[in-house]
Each structure stands twice: as structure tokens, then as C-alpha cells.
Amino acid sequence: MATDEHRIRAALLHGREGALLTGIHAMLRHGLRSAPEPTDVHVLVPADRRVGSMAFVHVERTTRLPPARVLREVPTVPTHRAVIDAARRMRNHDAVVAMMAEAIQRRRCTPEALARELADGKRAGRVLPARALAPLLGGARSVAEVDAWRLLGRSKLPECRWNIKLFTADGRYIATPDAWWDEVGLAWEIDSRRHHSGPGEHAGTLARNTRYLRAGVVVLQTLPARLRSEPQKVLAELRAAYGIARGRPRPDVHTG
Fold it and tell me: Residue-wise pLDDT tens for the chain (256 aa)?
């Protein structure tokens, strides 16, 4: 029975010399795991090559063949190209955000590299990746943070900063809140049960909240699901938290 490796090598043989692996299979080779299951093998070939798609092989002709990286003996495109090539063929917004966010979080590429690739590439399939990328360029780093970013656009609150490290006056680390309003000292944490339900994760969350308390930081915790199920209630809570933070002296904390 043919394995994914067999299919990948067969697809590159079909594309002939200079063909490169891209899309989801290329992302997997770069160590990314958030993309959906691939339905075919996506390869790039020179624009003048007369090779078409067939069976499990999706052939894309391009004038923009990037330098290859040989990963496990397979010529592969760079991470940013693999992510954008995959995203242009997808229809699920959350899935596109998740794989872009993973690439950025794991430092496989920068948001700016994704934006350049999206701008320089084909127009077809560009709208959804562009919409998914905008909050990530603003500092969001997950599907939940993207939901929060979009909700904040309706809040009329001042702009915040995303994923900024906080320190006490004497340099001790406090936390890295999902969102931070520096002028009033307000932190917003989008805390999912899945990532904070284990003994270690729960203890870490309690320790983080204690550091916030000692530093005098007002912190609002929100479950990700509520960003979609109860957006108006979340906005009301956020505005109230901002009012509380603004109504007391700003704590002596610094970003870094």
C-alpha cells in the first residue's frame, strides 16, 4: 500500500527535475502539525513546463520557484511559501489562522514573510488568507486571540498590545498577557479550559494570577468560547475592567 512518502516522491517524479514540494505536506516536513489532513500532494513546477495535475498530484506552475530546502531527501519550499500555498486552497478560516499562528509561534517564519508571500503570489485564493493574517500582523497568535482582536474592533477601547512580556520595577517577570493596555495597567487573558485543566497547567495559571495580584495589575480572564457565544457580555466585562484599571494608580510595571 502506498504511503505518504511514496506519494510525495511519485508526485515529484511526475513534476520532473526542479519540482518542489509545497502546501500541507511541506508544512509537515517543516515540523508544523496544525494543518488539516492533506487530500493531495501539492508540487510546484516551472511555469513553462507542460505537466498537469493527476490522481493525488496537484501541480501548480509558477514563475516564482523559491530556493529549495532538502528535508528528509525531498526538495521543499520554505515555510512561509508552504503555508501560503496551502492557505490559498483552503476554505476554513480557523484552520488557516491556526496554521499561520503555529508557524509564527514556533518561529518557522514571521508574519511579515507570510504577508510578503501573499502579496507577491497569485491573486487566486488570496482573500481568506489575507483576512486571517491581518490580526496576526497586529500581534495575535491564536484563533482565540484573533476572535478577541476582532471583538476589540467593536469595543471603542484604546488600542492594546499583544503578547508583551511584563516585569516588575526590579526586573522580575510577571507574565505575558494575551492583550495589554499599558496606559492603565490592564491585562486580558484568553484562558481555555483545555490548556489550563491539567495539574501543571492549573498550578501555572494560579501562580501567574498571583504574580499579577502582587504587581497590582488588573487582569480579566475570558474563556475562548465566550468570544463567539457571548460577545456583548465579554465586551461589557472588558469595558468594566478597563474602567477599574483606569480608576486606580497605574502599577509600576514595565514591558520588555
Answer: 779 999 999 999 999 999 999 999 999 999 999 999 999 999 999 999 999 999 999 999 999 999 999 999 999 999 999 999 999 999 999 999 999 999 999 999 999 999 999 999 988 999 999 999 999 999 999 999 999 999 999 999 999 999 999 999 999 999 999 999 999 999 999 986 554 445 567 788 999 999 999 999 999 999 999 999 999 999 999 999 999 999 999 999 999 8
Report CA torsion sign: 112, 117, 122, 128. Answer: negative
- Domain assignment of residue 239, given as a range: 145-255
- State the cell numbers at 147: 476572535
Do residue 122 and residue 40 come from a single domain?
A: yes
Verify that 64 and 86 share a domain, yes or no: yes
With beta carbons less than 8 A apart as the criterion, state whether 77 and 44 touch. yes
Q: Which amino acid is at 177?
A: P
pTM, two decimals, is 0.87
How far apart are alpha carbons 4 and 34 in whole angstroms?
Answer: 17
DSSP bridge partners of 230: none
Work out how many domains the chain is built from and give that number.
2
